[in-house]
Design goal:
By secondary structure, the chain is of the alpha/beta class. It has helices spanning about 20-30, 55-60, 75-90, 100-110, 130-140, 155-160, 175-180, 180-190, 210-225, 240-250, 265-270, 285-295, 320-330, 340-345, 350-365, and strands at about 5-10, 40-45, 65, 95, 115-120, 150, 165-170, 200-205, 230-235, 255-260, 275, 300, 315. Helix 1 packs across helix 15 (about 350-365), helix 8 crosses helix 11 (about 265-270) and helix 9 packs across helix 13. The chain starts with 6 loop residues before the first strand and ends with a helix.
């Protein structure tokens, strides 16, 4: 199907930033779709102060970026500008990756002519906070009849949100960026000053679901078996300070490295000797896919959805830290890293293939 003008799809998400998982998914789609047939525009309301170029990159690919006022700070202005936006910009298809604010967006979009409203679940929980879960559930279900298509990043996320009748769309990655490379591994370890250390890596936001206290308990046990061990924590988030305090309380300052949010995560995977991910719950856990794509031995919590388990992994129940530590040591003994890109692609996590899937889906909708 060749179109004279591309169909414009409005993607709704809170922010466009390389440290936001949903934004990275959307960027991967955008980079791999045929923009002569499908073009994305974006509606957001958070813009971080730090220098990140995702908005500029997407604009250069032809996207229009619309920024609403932050509803937490300017609620009535947010409502007014939301109304003006949908009154002025008419989209046949909107694809939302958020929850409770759809209570405002969906009726406005429908009123001004939107035919296709796609709801996308990126988590297996409505929220971490009990009150927010209740709010999100009620507000989204109030506009539930307006949703025409339901998507989720995993079966677990879809079942949690919809129960049944949903489409799973894997969060694809650019597999070649993560494929094991011994040259990058040697260079990155030298850059980090950890050439002779046993490096355990974790990538994730400092928030309750990532279970950093348990991870530190595990690492304490590993140190008893491997005194040259280092734990590298990649990410940012509200619980970072609390985690730093816990590291000091355990006297682990010389062994735990806080790397913050990074733009070189694919290279950091190369430097790791093992990836450990003890999350309490995940919609998917895309970093676990990335770590397996890097050929790492991965110790993963059994709380992850089944789609996250592909190769080089050991699935563990969240129980005793000593058992996790023993698994880390055992799994890395005589482990030889190899190119696992074929397994990751076969599991359906190629960004290019998923972008083509989404493009075909959009083209089949009524416009």
């Amino acid at each position: 199907m060749i179109l004279k003008k591309p169909i414009r799809i409005l993607q709704i998400t809170c922010q466009l930033h390389s440290r936001d998982g949903v934004a990275v998914v959307l960027k991967n789609w955008h980079n791999n779709i045929d923009t002569s047939q499908i073009q994305f525009d974006y509606l957001i309301w958070w813009r971080r102060a730090d220098n990140d170029h995702m908005i500029e990159e997407l604009s250069q690919k032809g996207a229009n970026i619309f920024i609403l006022p932050d509803p937490q700070q300017y609620f009535f202005q947010f409502l007014k500008e939301s109304y003006c936006f949908f009154k002025t910009h008419h989209y046949c298809t909107i694809h939302s990756h958020i929850t409770h604010l759809n209570f405002f967006f969906y009726p406005l979009a429908k009123w001004f002519g939107t035919k296709n409203i796609i709801q996308h679940a990126h988590s297996a929980r409505w929220s971490e906070k009990k009150l927010s879960r209740f709010r999100n559930y009620l507000m989204l279900h109030a506009v539930w009849p307006l949703i025409t298509h339901k998507m989720a990043c995993s079966h677990a996320a879809g079942k949690a949100y919809y129960g049944k009748d949903f489409m799973v769309v894997n969060n694809g990655i650019n597999i070649e960026k993560f494929t094991y490379n011994p040259v990058i591994r040697k260079s990155k370890r030298r850059e980090l000053g950890l050439e002779n250390d046993f490096i355990i890596g974790h990538v994730g936001r400092f928030s309750a679901p990532k279970n950093h206290p348990f991870l530190l308990n595990v690492f304490e046990q590993v140190l008893q078996m491997k005194p040259n061990a280092k734990l590298l924590l990649v990410g940012s988030g509200p619980l970072r300070q609390q985690t730093e305090e816990l590291v000091r309380a355990k006297n682990l300052q010389k062994h735990v490295v806080f790397l913050g949010g990074r733009t070189d995560v694919e290279q950091l995977y190369q430097a790791f000797d093992c990836f450990v991910f003890p999350s309490l719950h995940e919609g998917l856990g895309i970093v676990a896919i990335e770590a397996q794509a890097a050929g790492l031995p991965c110790i993963l919590a059994d709380t992850l959805p089944q789609e996250a388990f592909i190769c080089n992994y050991k699935k563990m129940a969240l129980g005793y830290a000593k058992e996790w530590a023993q698994a880390i040591v055992t799994c890395t003994e005589d482990f030889k890293r190899t190119d696992t890109s074929a397994q990751i692609k076969a599991a359906g996590f190629s960004a290019q293939a998923i972008a083509k899937q989404m493009q075909d889906f959009y083209l089949e909708l009524k416009h």
